[in-house]
Write a structure and sequence with these properties.
The complex is a heterodimer of chains A (442) and B (336).
Chain A lengths: L23 E2 L5 E5 L9 E2 L6 E2 L4 E4 L8 E2 L4 E10 L5 E9 L22 H10 L12 H5 L9 E6 L8 H8 L1 H15 L4 E6 L3 H10 L6 E6 L8 H9 L14 E5 H13 L5 E7 L7 E6 L4 H7 L7 E6 L6 E3 L12 E6 H4 L12 H5 L6 H9 L3 H6 L10 H5 L6 H19 L1
Parallel strand pairs in A: 1-14, 9-10, 9-12, 10-11, 13-17
Antiparallel strand pairs in A: 2-8, 3-5, 4-7, 5-6, 7-8, 13-14, 15-16, 15-17
Chain B lengths: L19 H23 L1 H25 L10 H11 L7 H16 L12 H12 L7 E2 L13 E2 L2 H10 L4 H5 L5 H6 L11 H13 L6 H20 L7 H6 L3 H8 L10 H21 L6 H18 L15
Antiparallel strand pairs in B: 1-2
Helix pairs in contact in B: 1-2, 1-3, 1-9, 2-3, 2-4, 3-4, 3-5, 4-5, 5-14, 9-12, 10-12, 10-13, 13-14
Classes of the chains: A alpha/beta (442), B mainly alpha (336).
Chain lengths: 442, 336
C-alpha cells in the first residue's frame, strides 16, 4: 500500500504534458525586472541606485529582517530604473530593473558544474550562507529557508523530509529537476542533514513519477540514512502537513509547524538551490519553470533567470495560442491568475499555465445542495460550506471557532462543489478579516 | 491573443465535471429499474400516476417561481423531476389524479419553495407530499391494487393489503405469525416485486440495483442505506428472536413496505440528510429505530416516511454535533 494522508483529497486530471521534456536554459533576457518582495515576510531593502553597474550574483536588495531574504542580481548589467510594477500577486510592488550587459560573458556562461560531494562547511556556516544567498522555499510558498534551519536548542528534531511530491496538475519542474540533478539533490540533502544535525531524511515522491523514485532509490543505496518513499497520487499530497502525516504518521498540531512534531520539510528545488549555494557559491538567481497548457505549441521546462518577463517564456513555447482566456502563475489548483504577461518570474514561480476558453470560466454558482462533498474532500477536516456561509454573513468570530484559520487553501472544496459555489473565495475573505480582527485584539 | 479579455480569478482554476444537475439525473436513471417493475405490475396506471406527479411538480415549481416568487425558474435542475417521481413511487397505483396533483402542490409549494427552494428545505418534499395525502385521504391512500393480468388496462379497485398491512391487522386480531404468514407473499415475490404496495416500492431487487448505481456513481455513500437497513434488521431480529409468533422476521421487514426505497432514495436525499459520514450514521440509526417502533407498536403498518421526516428535523442538530475531526486537533505521535 502506498502511503498517503488519511482524510480528504481529490484527483484532478494530472495533465503532466512536460514530464519528458529536458530542462532547457533560456538565454538571459535583455532586461530583467527584479521585485524586492519575492518571499514571505519583510521586503528586502534596495541598496543599489539608478545607473549603478551590477555584477552577476551581487546583492542588490538586502534582507529586511529575520523573516526576509537577500535579493541578488540575476544578470550583470546596469540598473536602469527603480520602478513599481505589478507582480504575480496582482499588486504593484517595488522592483529593480536591470539592463543586461550583452558583452559580459558571465551572463552567458555554462553553469553545469561537476558534482562536488565533500561538505566542508560547519552547520552554522551553512545556515548563514543559505540566508546570505537568498534561498527561499521554491515549492511556491517562498518562506525564507534559513528560518526553518535556525532551530532553538530545546527543540527536538529527528527527521528531514524532502518534498518531491509535486501534486499540482501540469507542473513538472520538480520532477525534471529530480531526474536531471539526482546526485546534486542527494548531496543537498546531506548538507541539510549536516546543518540540522539529523540522521534521517525521507524523500517523498508521488507514484506518478516512478522514474524519479527509481533514480533516487538507485543512487541512495550507499546512503542508508536517506529513504525514498513512493506516495499515492492524491492532491494535496504535497501540502506540508499532509506529507508529514503520510510519511511519518505524525499530525502537525492545529496552528503548529512540522517542527512541533520533530520534522523540517524542504522542497527538492530548494535543496538543489542549497547545493548550488554551498558547493558552488551560487546565490539564488534562477529556477526551473514549467511553461504548459493544452493548446501550447511546445510546452517545456526551462531554467529561467529571476526577473525574466513571463512573455519571454511564452514566446519560447510558440506564443499565446488563439482562444486563451487565462494565464496562471503556478498550478491550476493553487496558482494565481495573471492580468498580463509583463509580470516577471520570481523565486516562487514554479510554472506558467495557459488555459483556453473551455476551461477558463467558472460555472454559474447554484444553491448549496448539502451534498457534503466539500466536507469529505477537505484534508484539514473542515466544513467549507459552513465556513463560506459564515464568511458571507460576516460571522467571523464563529468562523474562527470553526477553525477557518487552519484552511490551507488547497482548493479541493471549490474543485468538487457540484453547485460551483465559490467556497475558497469566501473562506479566503473570512481568513483575511479574521486575521485583521485577531491582530487588533493583541 | 484573442480579443476577449483575460479572466483573472482566484484559484482553483479547474473544476471536476460533477454538477448538481448531473447528480440529479443520475438519481433519475437509478429509479428506472423500479419504474419498469411498476409498469410491469400495474400497467398503464403506473405510467399515468408517475406522469401526473412529474408534470404537476414541474408545473407548480415553474408557476410559483415565475409568478409568486418572481425568481429564476429552476425546473431544469432535475430536483422537481425527482420529487415528482419519488412522490408517485410512494403512492398506491389507483389513486385519483387530482390527489396526486394536490400532493405535488404540497411537496413543491409547501415543503420545498416556501423554505427557499432547492437546498433550503428541511424536509424531504416527496415525503411531505405523501404524508399529507396519507393523513388527508387515509382510505384512498391505503387501497392497494394488486398485480393485474393485462398490463395495458386501467385497474379498478381490485385491491389487496400490503405485507405490512396484513401483519399489522393479523397481530391486532390476535393471530399468530404462522397464521398470518399463510396470507403473505413469498420472500422471493417480495424481492422481485409481485406484491401489493406503493408504485415504486414493489421490487427490492430493482431498487437495490438503482441504489448500487448511485453508490458507484458516488452520488450517495453506503453510510445511510446500510446503517438504516442493518438497524432495522437488528431491531426486528431481536423481537423476532424473542417471540417469532408475534413478530415478523427481519427479512420480511426489509423486503416489505418502503424500507429499501426509503433507505436508498428517500433518506439519502442530499439536501435533507447530514453532511458528515458520522452524522449520516447517526441519522440512519435514528430512522431505523423510529421505523421499527412505528411498524411494531404504532397504529400505521408502515412508518419509514414518518421516521425519515422526523429525523430530517434533527439534521441541523446532527450537523452541529457530529463534525469531522479537525486535522491536528490532537497530536498523534510522539517524537522519538
Amino acid at each position: 500500500m502506498l502511503k498517503t494522508f488519511p482524510k480528504g483529497g481529490v484527483h484532478p486530471p494530472e495533465n503532466k504534458l512536460t514530464s519528458t521534456k529536458t530542462i532547457k536554459r533560456l538565454p538571459a533576457p535583455k532586461v530583467v525586472y527584479v521585485p524586492i518582495s519575492q518571499h514571505i515576510g519583510i521586503p528586502a531593502e534596495i541598496i543599489v541606485d539608478r545607473k549603478d553597474k551590477v555584477e552577476i550574483g551581487q546583492v542588490i536588495a538586502r534582507s529586511g529582517g529575520f523573516v526576509s531574504s537577500n535579493i541578488h542580481a540575476p544578470v550583470a548589467g546596469t540598473v536602469t530604473k527603480l520602478d513599481m510594477i505589478i507582480d504575480t500577486s496582482g499588486y504593484k510592488k517595488q522592483c529593480i530593473v536591470i539592463r543586461t550587459d550583452a558583452k559580459n560573458e558571465s551572463n552567458f556562461e555554462e553553469i553545469d558544474f561537476p558534482l562536488k560531494k565533500e561538505i566542508t562547511l560547519q552547520p552554522e556556516e551553512i545556515v548563514q550562507r543559505i540566508s546570505d544567498f537568498g534561498i527561499v522555499g521554491l515549492g511556491g510558498a517562498t518562506f525564507p529557508s534559513h528560518v526553518k534551519l535556525n532551530i532553538k536548542e530545546d527543540r527536538k528534531l529527528d527527521c528531514l523530509i524532502i518534498n518531491g511530491v509535486e501534486c499540482e496538475p501540469y507542473l513538472t519542474a520538480d520532477h525534471r529537476l529530480m531526474l536531471e540533478k539526482t546526485k546534486e539533490i542527494l548531496v543537498g540533502i546531506q548538507i541539510l542533514m549536516h546543518a540540522l544535525r539529523v540522521d534521517r531524511a525521507i524523500i517523498g515522491i508521488e507514484n506518478n513519477k516512478k522514474d524519479a523514485i527509481e533514480a533516487f532509490k538507485t543512487l541512495s543505496v550507499q546512503e542508508p540514512r536517506i529513504q525514498v518513499a513512493a506516495l499515492k497520487v492524491k492532491y494535496p499530497q504535497g501540502g506540508e502537513k499532509q506529507l508529514v502525516r503520510a510519511l511519518l504518521n505524525r499530525e502537525v498540531p492545529k496552528n503548529g509547524l512540522p517542527l512541533d512534531v520533530g520534522v523540517v520539510v524542504h522542497n527538492v528545488g530548494t535543496v538543489y538551490a542549497i547545493y548550488q549555494a554551498i558547493q558552488h557559491n551560487r546565490p539564488l538567481m534562477e529556477r526551473v519553470v514549467t511553461v504548459t497548457g493544452k493548446k501550447l505549441e511546445k510546452p517545456s521546462n526551462f531554467w529561467v533567470k529571476i526577473g525574466t518577463p513571463i512573455k519571454d517564456l511564452v514566446e519560447e513555447v510558440g506564443g499565446i495560442p488563439e482562444g486563451t482566456r487565462k494565464i496562471v502563475s503556478g498550478g491550476p489548483m493553487m496558482g494565481k491568475a495573471l492580468k498580463s504577461t509583463d509580470v516577471p518570474v520570481t523565486k516562487g514561480t514554479s510554472g506558467i499555465l495557459v488555459i483556453s476558453e473551455d476551461e477558463a470560466s467558472r460555472g454559474e454558482p447554484k444553491n448549496c445542495i448539502r451534498c457534503g462533498e466539500c466536507v469529505s474532500v477537505c484534508p484539514m477536516g473542515l466544513e467549507p460550506h459552513l465556513l463560506m456561509n459564515l464568511s458571507e454573513k460576516n460571522m467571523f468570530e464563529k468562523a474562527a471557532q470553526e477553525d477557518i484559520m487552519t484552511c490551507i487553501e488547497c482548493g479541493s472544496c471549490s474543485y468538487v462543489c457540484p453547485s460551483h459555489r465559490p467556497l475558497l473565495d469566501y473562506i479566503r475573505f473570512g481568513k483575511n478579516i479574521t486575521k485583521e480582527l485577531q491582530s487588533k485584539k493583541v | 491573443m484573442s480579443d476577449q479579455p483575460i479572466i483573472v480569478s482566484a484559484s482553483p482554476h479547474v473544476h471536476s465535471d460533477r454538477t448538481s444537475q448531473k447528480l440529479m439525473y443520475d438519481v433519475v436513471i437509478a429509479l428506472i429499474p423500479a419504474f419498469l417493475v411498476s409498469l410491469y405490475v400495474f400497467g398503464i396506471n403506473a405510467m399515468i400516476a408517475t406522469a401526473a406527479a412529474v408534470i404537476s411538480c414541474l408545473l407548480f415549481e415553474y408557476l410559483i417561481q415565475k409568478y409568486l416568487m418572481k425568481t429564476e425558474v429552476t425546473i431544469g435542475d432535475g430536483s422537481a423531476l425527482i420529487t415528482g417521481i419519488l412522490l408517485a413511487f410512494n403512492l398506491p397505483a389507483g389513486i385519483p389524479i387530482w390527489m396526486i396533483v394536490m400532493g405535488s402542490l404540497v411537496a413543491i409549494g409547501v415543503a420545498k419553495l416556501s423554505f427557499g427552494g432547492l437546498g433550503f428545505n428541511i424536509f424531504n418534499p416527496a415525503l411531505v407530499g405523501r404524508v399529507f395525502l396519507l393523513i388527508s385521504f387515509p382510505v384512498q391512500m391505503t387501497l392497494w391494487p394488486t398485480a393485474v393480468e393485462n398490463n395495458t388496462t386501467v385497474v379498478d379497485a381490485v385491491t389487496g393489503a400490503t405485507t405490512l398491512g396484513l401483519i399489522k391487522e393479523g397481530v391486532q386480531f390476535g393471530e399468530t405469525m404462522t397464521e398470518i404468514s399463510a396470507q403473505l407473499p413469498s420472500n422471493m415475490d417480495m424481492l422481485l416485486g409481485i406484491t401489493g404496495g406503493s408504485l415504486g416500492e414493489m421490487s427490492a431487487l430493482a431498487l437495490i440495483l438503482g441504489g448500487l448505481f448511485l453508490i458507484i456513481r458516488k452520488v450517495i455513500t453506503w453510510h445511510i442505506p446500510v446503517t438504516l437497513l442493518v438497524t432495522m434488521a437488528v431491531l426486528t431480529g431481536i423481537f423476532w428472536w424473542i417471540d417469532p409468533e408475534h413478530y415478523a422476521s427481519p427479512l420480511i421487514h426489509l423486503l416489505s413496505g418502503g424500507a429499501i426505497l426509503g433507505a436508498f432514495f428517500m433518506a439519502t436525499d442530499l439536501v435533507t440528510s447530514p453532511v458528515t459520514k458520522k452524522g449520516m450514521v447517526v441519522f440512519a440509526i435514528g430512522i431505523g429505530i423510529l421505523t421499527v417502533v412505528i411498524r411494531l407498536f404504532g397504529s400505521y403498518p408502515e412508518g419509514i416516511s414518518f421516521a425519515i421526516l422526523i429525523m430530517n428535523a434533527f439534521v441541523p442538530l446532527i450537523n452541529t454535533y457530529f463534525k469531522p475531526r479537525r486535522f491536528g486537533s490532537k497530536i498523534k505521535a510522539k517524537i522519538v
